[in-house]
């Protein structure tokens, strides 16, 4: 019995030691041993997207793509930076080498990405005046309008940070800063019955979204909420946007309705009743729809306007727009090794 009790006591002591050891090993610092600042990026809202009007990891993960980052160290100008970070085909590298002061010093981090745009330090501080293009008729042109933002985030203690530090890298969590607008067309069976040949994607032309203000000021360091830098409409005059056709499904004998989806990226704003018009042609026939109530389009939101097209009419539901988060593909990490 004594031998048995000694055995149990030893086993309990071993178990307690193992638990203590596990607890001590449960926390692993993500700070780089060599003190060199490295980056990885992530495009948030990781749910499945059904349309293309957004930058994805495959777009950003291309050799030569870049974003700008501002690091503010409140105790050291030497360890404060404004820099461009480029993707070299395998990882993100700052144009100029960046170092952490140490693993305890707090920093504030701000970042922004836009295809074809190199932000300046002054634009981060005082705001960048930008415009969404009138011609978004191709997928490539449309994606150039997308603006990704990570407003100022604080890393209070780099040695303890687990969210914005991973595997020795500073994580840049990007969100879409503008608004995604899709218009879907349901072409009634009159088209198929009257002229079955009028049943191709190319038969819909001049698809234009009229009435949104295209100019805006982007303040990367002025936080609209926890996810977005501030976007404010600046243009006084509404503009026209030539939208991109994302999909087309032709009518058949079994289903005489053709379906098409058009996409655009617009500035977040309030649109007055009667200000927004969607116009297009089917063959030689012209069609248009105009809003009868005001709508507010918010940052980071994906709006869908479903239109039913009769041979002589265009109608929308009573609640014309549906809204959801602007989504990206699952687990879409923009820059990992």
UniProtKB/TrEMBL annotation:
Query: Which InterPro entries does the record match to this protein?
Result: Mfa-like_1 (IPR025049)
The record's listing under CDD domains reads: BF2867_like_C
Could you list this entry's UniProt keywords, alphabetically sorted: Signal
Q: Where is the signal peptide?
A: 1-20
Whether Metal-binding counts among this entry's keywords is no
Q: What positions belong to coiled-coil segments?
A: none
Q: Which domain of life is it from?
A: Bacteria
Its name, as the record gives it, is Fimbrillin-like
Protein source organism: Xylanibacter ruminicola
């Amino acid at each position: 019995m004594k031998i048995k009790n000694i055995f149990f006591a030893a086993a309990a002591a071993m178990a307690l030691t193992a638990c203590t050891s596990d607890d001590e090993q449960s926390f692993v610092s993500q700070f780089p041993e060599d003190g060199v600042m490295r980056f990885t990026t992530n495009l948030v809202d990781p749910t499945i997207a059904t349309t293309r009007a957004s930058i994805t990891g495959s777009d950003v993960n291309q050799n030569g793509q870049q974003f700008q980052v501002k690091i503010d160290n409140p105790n050291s100008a030497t360890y404060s930076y404004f820099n461009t970070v480029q993707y070299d085909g395998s990882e993100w590298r700052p144009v100029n080498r960046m170092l952490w002061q140490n693993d305890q010093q707090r920093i504030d981090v701000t970042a922004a990405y836009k295809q074809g745009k190199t932000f300046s330090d002054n634009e981060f501080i005082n705001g960048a005046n930008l415009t969404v293009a009138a011609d978004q008729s191709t997928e490539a042109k449309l994606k150039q309008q997308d603006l990704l933002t990570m407003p100022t985030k604080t890393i209070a203690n780099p040695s303890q940070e687990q969210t914005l530090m991973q595997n020795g890298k500073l994580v840049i969590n990007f969100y879409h800063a503008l608004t995604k607008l899709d218009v879907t067309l349901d072409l009634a069976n009159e088209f198929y019955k009257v002229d079955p040949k009028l049943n191709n994607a190319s038969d819909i032309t001049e698809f234009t979204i009229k009435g949104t203000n295209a100019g805006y000021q982007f303040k990367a360091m002025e936080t609209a909420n926890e996810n977005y830098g501030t976007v404010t409409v600046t243009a006084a005059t509404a503009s026209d946007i030539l939208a991109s056709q994302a999909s087309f499904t032709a009518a058949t004998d079994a289903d005489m309705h053709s379906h098409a989806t058009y996409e655009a990226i617009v500035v977040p704003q309030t649109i007055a009743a009667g200000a927004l018009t969607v116009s297009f042609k089917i063959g030689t026939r012209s069609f248009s729809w105009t809003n009868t109530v005001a709508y507010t389009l918010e940052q980071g939101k994906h709006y869908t306007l479903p239109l039913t097209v009769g041979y002589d009419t265009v109608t929308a539901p009573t609640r014309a727009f549906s809204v959801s988060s602007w989504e990206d593909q699952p687990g879409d990490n923009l820059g990992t090794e």
